[in-house]
Amino acid sequence: TGALKTGASHSVLRKVLITFQFSVSILMMVGTGVVLSQLEFMQNKRLGFESEHLAVVRMPDEAALRGYGAYKNAVLQYPEILKVSTSSSVPGAQTSLNLLTPEGLPPDQSPVFQTIWGDFDFAETMAFELAAGRTFDTAFATDSSACLINETAVRALGWEEPIDKTFRFAGSPETAPSHRVIGVMRDFHQHSLRQPIEPLMILFNTPGPYMVIRMRGEDPRRGMEILQDQWRQTYPNHPAMEISFLDANLEQLYSAEQRLGSVFIAGAALSMLIACLGLLGLSSYMAEQRTREIGIRKVLGATISNVIVLLSADFTKLVLLAFVIGAPVGYLAMGAWLEDFPYRVDLGIGVFVLAGLVALIISWLTVGYQAFKAASANPADAVHGE
C-alpha cells in the first residue's frame, strides 16, 4: 500500500512538473512569435523614403567638406551614380532640436522641431514623398532661406494652408530673416520605430557632415568602386572613406530585438526539450503501470490506434491545461512589451493557436512512441505476467 501511495504521489508530481514545463514552452513560443513578427514588421514597414541603394559617407573634417563640390561633380559623371547631396543628419542618426516661433502662434506656444540642414539635392536624393508644394530648387534664389516641414509639423502648428507660411527661430530678433515653407513632406521615420514621428523641418545649408549618394540598383558594387576611386583622387591625403549602406545602418537599429528573438528561440527549444524528456519518462511509467489493462483491452479487440488514443488522452489534457496557464501569461507579457512601440503588430490569436498546436503535436509524437511500444506488445504476455 505504501508503495502504491508513493508511486501515485510521484505520478502527480511528474504531471505538475510537465504541465509547468509545457506552460513555459508555450509562453516562450508565444514570445518568439510576437518578437519575430514585430521585428519583421519594423524591417519591412515603409519608412517614407527609399533606403535601398543609398550610400552614406561620414565626412571626416573641414578639408573634406571643402572638396565636396569637386567630388560630387566627379562621381556624377558616371551613370551608376544618380544623386549626391550632404546633410547634417540621415535617418537613424541624431538631429538637432530647435524651438520655433511660427507665423500666427504666440511665443509661449512654440513647438520643438527636429531640424536637418541639407543642400538643395538632399530631399530628392532621399526620395522623400511630397504631400504639398515643392522641394528646393536652385532656380529660386530665395530657397536658401526656405524650408520643408513634415505632416506632423503641419498638425502641430495647426496650419490648414502651410505653403508660404513663415517662422523664425525662437529668441531671434524681429530683424532676423524668416524661413518660408515651400513644401510639406509626407511623414517619414527619421529614427527607429520605437519612437513616434515628431515635427521635423529641413533647412538649406552648406555641406554637412554626412554625404548621401543614390546609386543605380543594377550594379551597386561598381558604384562603390567608383565612389572609393574618386575619393582617393579627390582626397589623396585623407584616410579611406567611411562608407556604408543606409538600409544596413537602419537594420542595426533593431539589434536588440534580434537578440531578444534569438533568446526566445533558444528558450523555447530548451524548455520544449526538457518538457518532452519529462513527458517521455512519465508516459513510459504510465504505460508500464497500465500494462495489464492494455493487454486485456487488446484481447477484447482493441486496436493499436485505440490504445495509442487511450494513453495519449491524459497527456493531451496536461498540454491543454498548460496552454490555459501559459497563453494568458504570454498575452499579458507580450502585450506589455509591445506597448513600448508606437508602431507595432496586432497581438492576434494566431500566434497563440500556433504555439498550442506545436505543443500538442510534439506531445503526441513523444507519447505516441511509448504508446505504440506498449500497444504492440503481446497481450498474452501482459496478462500472464500479472
* Separation, N- and C-terminal Cα atoms: 17 Å
Percent strand equals 15-25%
The main sheet comes to: 6 strands, mixed, barrel
Strand order of the largest sheet: 3-4-9-6-8-7
Spatial shape: elongated
Helix content: 40-55%
**Low-pLDDT sequence parts:** none
Radius of gyration: 33 Å
Global structural class: alpha+beta
Distinct helical segment count:
12
Query: What is the string of SSEs from the N terminus onward?
Result: HEHHEEEHEEHEEEEHEHHHHHH
User: How many strands appear in the DSSP assignment?
Assistant: 11
Mean pLDDT: 84
**Tally of discrete structural domains:** 2
What does this structure look like?
There is one protein chain. This protein has helices spanning 2-44, 62-66, 68-75, 122-126, 151-157, 220-234, 246-251, 255-289, 291-299, 304-338, 350-376, 379-385; strands at 54-58, 81-87, 96-102, 112-118, 130-133, 146-150, 166-169, 179-185, 200-204, 210-215, 242-245. It is an alpha+beta fold. It folds into two domains: 2-45 and 254-385, no CATH class; 54-253, no CATH class. The chain has a six-stranded mixed barrel with strand order 3-4-9-6-8-7. Strands 2-10-1-11 form a four-stranded antiparallel sheet. α1 (2-44) packs antiparallel against α8 (255-289), α1 (2-44) runs antiparallel to α11 (350-376) and α9 (291-299) packs across α12. The longest helix has 43 residues, at 2-44.
